[in-house]
Input
Amino acid sequence: MSSESDHKHNAACLELFAKLSEYLDQELEADTCEKIEQHLKECPPCRNCLQTLKRTVELCKAMGTKPVPSELSRRLRSMLEQLR
Ligand SMILES: [Zn+2]
Output
């Protein structure tokens, strides 16, 4: 059965998502970044979400506002739920 590994994959994604905004701000240690990049290589849904997150952050920067981390993680979580 594959439900077990699906669940594990989701847990990895959620863990990654919690760090994505720090990753974009380059606030993470090098080996954490590597772990995220490794996951992104193997996980197209997460790559899509990162693209969306990047756009959101750039949009906020262009408008001179700071992205709110809790708002970003809410968006990311709802995106992940749609992938299930
Ligand atoms: Zn993932």
